[in-house]
Amino acid sequence: MKFYTKACDGGDTDGCFRLGRMYADGQGVKQDYFKAVQLYTKACDGEDMKGCFNLGNMSYNGQGVRQSNKNTLKYWGKACDGGHASACNNYAIVNKKQ
Q1: Are 76 and 56 in contact, with CB atoms under 8 Å apart?
Q2: Continuous segment of H or E residues that includes residue 12
Q3: How far is CA 55 from CA 2, 27, 37, 42, 48, in A?
Q4: Which residue of 4, 20, 54, 86 has the lowest C-beta tally within 10 Å?
Q5: pLDDT surpassing 90 at residue 92
Q6: pTM of the full predicted structure?
């Protein structure tokens, strides 16, 4: 956690993603969906597509944020455009239901 925090604070988006995953899963830290969303947002804003994908998952499941298909599609769409195949699949499924 210490190294991911340092990396994220230094602008490394993969560090932010990995730290976000630790908080989302409660691995080595107390589970905190709100903190995970903050970290995934930082990763996604820095063009880390894994961060965008996981942020979409959090939005879809209403974990740390209000459930929103609009935001879910926004984040999965960005991840899909960035080449994240699972985001493309999820986007297509949720978008079809609307």
Answers
A1: yes
A2: none
A3: 22, 18, 6, 10, 11
A4: 86
A5: yes
A6: 0.94
